[in-house]
Amino acid sequence: EADIYQTPRYLVIGTGKKITLECSQTMGHDKMYWYQQDPGMELHLIHYSYGVNSTEKGDLSSESTVSRIRTEHFPLTLESARPSHTSQYLCASSESKGPAQPQHFGDGTRLSIL
Amino acid sequence: GIQVEQSPPDLILQEGANSTLRCNFSDSVNNLQWFHQNPWGQLINLFYIPSGTKQNGRLSATTVATERYSLLYISSSQTTDSGVYFCALTTSGTYKYIFGTGTRLKVLA
């Protein structure tokens, strides 16, 4: 199974705090993705990256930002958390080479903003 | 953009029953996956299946790309099969996966 790690697994924090959600993968995948998901609902792509120093916004508008300084690391930052940011955030990566490019997911971060 | 529809949206089964979940899409696809999201929110990769048929234990999947649908079969369902099942796919020229709205399955003991 793929090795992709997210920390923290759960986070409860007050309004106005700066938050960084960590995502790392050890497979050397070029492509990485962040999704936002409300409980039991579909996943929405909020950010993606095709390689180092490459980041793009996804289909769902988000106040978060991302960076990709190293291939294996794709952190997501909220400068000032609000209750509307309460959600689950899922990180994924996929292979770049060849026709088969399945996505592999981390376990997710459940974020609650009080 | 491509439309991805899953049916049924909700399904309740008695333990031991069989079921078929469907994913319809509106354009040709390059990549297609089926995932199971467990009650703890973890997404488990079930199948990578842009075409053809695959089987893994009690689960199997078939994608008929020319007719733009994929099916996930669950046989002899167990309570641990409960959760949400998603199909996700990419179309030609993009690596961005689009997710369906999911099928919420509850298996009763």
Give a short synopsis of this structure:
Chain A has strands at residues 4-7, 10-13, 19-25, 31-37, 44-51, 54-57, 65-66, 76-78, 87-94, 103-105, 109-113.
Summary keywords:
heterodimer, A: 114 residues, mainly beta, 7-stranded mixed beta sheet, 4-stranded antiparallel beta sheet, 0% helix, globular, B: 109 residues, 6-stranded mixed beta sheet, 5-stranded antiparallel beta sheet, 60% strand
Q: Write down the overall geometry of chain B.
A: globular
Q: State which percent range the strand residues of chain B make up.
A: over 45%
**Overall pLDDT level of chain B:** 94
Give me the secondary-structure category of chain B.
Answer: mainly beta
Count, helices of chain B: 0
| Major sheet attributes of chain B | 6 strands, mixed
List the helices and strands and how they pair.
The complex is a heterodimer of chains A (114) and B (109).
Chain A: E1 4-7, E2 10-13, E3 19-25, E4 31-37, E5 44-51, E6 54-57, E7 65-66, E8 76-78, E9 87-94, E10 103-105, E11 109-113
Parallel strand pairs in A: 2-11
Antiparallel strand pairs in A: 1-3, 3-8, 4-5, 4-9, 5-6, 7-8, 9-10, 9-11
Chain B: E1 4-7, E2 10-14, E3 19-25, E4 29-37, E5 43-48, E6 52-56, E7 59-64, E8 69-74, E9 83-91, E10 98-99, E11 103-108
Parallel strand pairs in B: 2-11
Antiparallel strand pairs in B: 1-3, 3-8, 4-5, 4-9, 6-7, 7-8, 9-10, 9-11
What features would you describe in this structure?
The complex is a heterodimer of chains A (114) and B (109). Chain A has 114 residues and is mainly beta. Chain A is 0% helix and 48% strand. In chain A, strand 5 and strand 6 (54-57) form a beta hairpin. The termini of chain A are far apart. Chain B has 109 residues and is an all-beta fold. Chain B has no helices and 11 strands. In chain B, strands 2, 4, 5, 9, 10 and 11 form a 6-stranded mixed beta sheet that branches. In chain B, strands 1-3-8-7-6 form a 5-stranded antiparallel beta sheet, with no helix packed on it. The chains are: A mainly beta (114), B mainly beta (109). The A-B interface holds A 2, 31, 33, 35, 37, 40-45, 48, 50, 58-59, 88, 90, 92, 94, 99-105, 107-108, 110 and B 30-31, 33, 35, 40-43, 45, 48, 50, 84, 86, 88, 90, 95-97, 99-102, 104.
